[in-house]
Amino acid sequence: MIQTLIIIAIIYLGLLILLSISTRQKNKDTSNYLLAGSKVGSVLGMFTFAATLFSTFTLIGMPDFFRTHGIGSWIFLAVSDAAMVFIIVWLGLYIRKKARSNDFQGMSGLMRNCFKSKFAGYVTFFGAFIFLIPYVSIQIRGIAIFLHATFPDALPVWGWASLMILVMLLYSETGGLKAIIYSDMLQGILLLVVICIVGYNCLSYFGNVPAMFQKVKEVNEALLSVPGPKNLFSSQFLIASFIAIVMIPFTQPQVATRIIIMKNNESLFRMAVGVGFFAIIIILPTLLIGMYGAVKYPALSTAEFISKVIIDDQSQVVAAFAIIGLVAAAISTSDSQIFALGGELRSLLKGDDKKMLQITRIAIVFFALIALVFSLISSDQLVLLARTSFAGTALMAPMIFTGIFLRRDTGRVIPLITALAMLIFLASLLQLIPAMYMGIRLDLILFVLIGLTSIINALFYRNEIPEYQVK
Amino acid sequence: MKMRNNKTVYWRICQALAMLLMLATFSPWVISSGTFEPSVMGLPYSLWIGILISILLVLLTFWATKIHPDRKNTASE
């Protein structure tokens, strides 16, 4: 298998190099380098959006989630994703309009302009940084641990993690967002094909769908209903997760950027529908893989289970493609997130574009290094950490929607409340304060409180002294 | 003008249907604790109804893209 893997890895790396060289631009400016010229078509848009959204979290995390917590995982992710694409069609145009009228370079800069407050920009950047870095790190860590478990003599965990970061930086620094988008397309197709083949093979083990669920019922009946064997899928967990996931296109800068850079409204709409179908097609096989794991490998760790199901139980060629698919999934999401952090920083900087872009490119390397360090010390709970990232950035949703929808100045209350809520949420993650109050999850309480404050503030705040008079 | 009005009405209906589906997801009819039956083609209850809701939401999204009042509005672009 090693020989097959090396051949596929060389082809994959060769394609990445080819893409980054072909998208390399002599005249780098913010619009071309960070926003890919803002003329992305629907097919390319769909793949880059899907590859950014469906990461290692999908390929490793979701099968493991189905195996451990059962069929409620479908409502947790697939229903939320399907609702998310509707929300993109519903609200996507508003963010595009606001972005175009504010010379969009990043969400932080957009919020600074909308609230006429640098603080609002800093809050957005802080939220993106603090909740995206752990998300990038867990993906890198997930794959590095998996590769180390599969090839224990090749490289240590930090070696695999460093190699992935290096590949990611090489092509994204060379070709900018355009290179990332094209590589996302390659990675998205690879991920989709691999996961469908592995899913089909898992179903073949049982013969058919009723036989599969019958077998799961014999092993662990609680997997076939909510809240699952470990009582994870309570209504509250599902509602809080739903809100966090549905808000992703507006609160996670790497995803918001992909809405804004679409060529026109029709491209955006076609992209949204495509992502909806892509979500269903890609989550279905993870259900099959998870149920297979529940029957065959209920007691193994996540890394051992994934190693068994995608390497030991597959043909050599499929296993080799699956390993590359896993690496591709991790890289395609991580590079978009790291790059988006660079974009966020750029949007806060003012000055000569060329110079600011140079600072941004150095910052991207710096962010990648932080993610690398964090990947070596973070936890292995892939899905739950990803969900924490979604929930953390979702706290910015009321502020972002206020900024997008309201034309008049609404003061600094909302950015302040958002910053406070994020700090409280962080305190609960660090276990400095409880995560539940009167039986209600803290992230849900905070989201409702910020939402209500934003509505009340929008209704009653009147800036009586126009800004020009203050100055 | 009349066509645009029709589109706005359809768009409102589409929004309402999507909201209803989203709310229904978290009702006891869908996330019914410990319920396996009725199953469809061997799929346990919460799973098949979850799959159905996902497909309906994506189909609604497709319909929304056809009737959205600003579908071809490129004035802002």
What's the topology here?
The complex is a heterodimer of chains A (471) and B (77).
Chain A: H1 2-22, H2 30-35, H3 42-53, H4 56-69, H5 72-101, H6 107-115, H7 118-150, H8 157-206, H9 209-219, H10 235-246, H11 248-251, H12 253-260, H13 265-296, H14 302-312, H15 316-348, H16 353-377, H17 382-394, H18 397-405, H19 413-429, E1 436-437, E2 440-441, H20 442-460, H21 467-470
Antiparallel strand pairs in A: 1-2
Helix pairs in contact in A: 1-8, 1-15, 3-8, 3-12, 3-13, 3-15, 4-13, 4-14, 4-15, 5-10, 5-13, 6-7, 6-15, 6-18, 7-8, 7-14, 7-15, 7-16, 7-17, 7-19, 8-13, 8-15, 8-16, 9-13, 10-17, 12-15, 15-16, 18-20, 19-20
Chain B: H1 2-25, H2 45-67
Helix pairs in contact in B: 1-2
Characterization of the model:
The complex is a heterodimer of chains A (471) and B (77). With 471 residues, chain A is mostly helical. In chain A, 79% of the residues lie in helices and 1% in strands. Chain A has helices at residues 2-22, 30-35, 42-53, 56-69, 72-101, 107-115, 118-150, 157-206, 209-219, 235-246, 248-251, 253-260, 265-296, 302-312, 316-348, 353-377, 382-394, 397-405, 413-429, 442-460, 467-470, and strands at residues 436-437, 440-441. In chain A, strands 1-2 form a two-stranded antiparallel sheet. In chain A, strand 1 and strand 2 (440-441) form a beta hairpin. In chain A, helix 1 packs across helix 8 (157-206), helix 3 packs parallel to helix 13 (265-296) and helix 6 runs antiparallel to helix 7. The longest helix of chain A is centred in the middle third of the chain and has 50 residues, at 157-206. Mean pLDDT of chain A is 87; it is low at 464-471. The radius of gyration of chain B is 17 Å and the shape is elongated. Chain B contains 2 helices and no strands. With 77 residues, chain B is an all-alpha fold. In chain B, helix 1 (2-25) runs antiparallel to helix 2. Chain B has helices spanning 2-25, 45-67. Classes of the chains: A mainly alpha (471), B mainly alpha (77). The interface between A and B is large, with 49 and 41 residues.
